[in-house]
Amino acid sequence: MKRICPECGEEYTGRADKKFCSSSCRATHHNRLNAEELTFQRGVNNILRHNRNVLAELNPGGKANVRKDRLIDRGFKFRYFTNEYVTRNNTLYHFCYDYGYLVDADPNNEWVLVIKRQEYVE
């Protein structure tokens, strides 16, 4: 039985449950269907990777105090982070992969503590 490929429009033969003429047409079709969702996901991943690289650049020694404006000047986005960690003292750290930062609740404080993840931090 001959059928028409929904992606390229070519005629093909094959098993009764075969829907596409080739694996490349199948992949192209599904990539096109998921393109919008993947584009958003790629954008968020790029922001997270950039945030992590900024923290690593400003923290070569494992622990550093950095001014907020230095982070912002390098394009750091505080709303994007991979996870949070609360210490026993109820101190909240935000992490971008293996680098974390602590923002003081006081809006007048211009400093951010940047740390590198330690093995005991889950």
The termini sit apart by 57 Å
Question: What percentage of amino acids are in beta strands?
Answer: 25-35%
Main sheet: strand order: 3-7-6-5-4
Helix content: 25-40%
Number of strands: 7
Number of helices: 3
| SS class | alpha+beta
**pLDDT < 50 stretches:** none
Radius of gyration: 24 Å
Written as H for each helix and E for each strand, in order along the chain, the element string is EEHHEHEEEE
Q: How does the SSE layout of this entry go?
A:
Blueprint: E1 2-4, E2 11-13, H1 23-33, H2 35-58, E3 63-67, H3 68-73, E4 83-86, E5 92-96, E6 99-103, E7 111-116
Antiparallel strand pairs: 1-2, 3-7, 4-5, 5-6, 6-7
Would you kindly provide a brief summary of this structure?
This protein is α+β, with helices and mostly antiparallel strands.
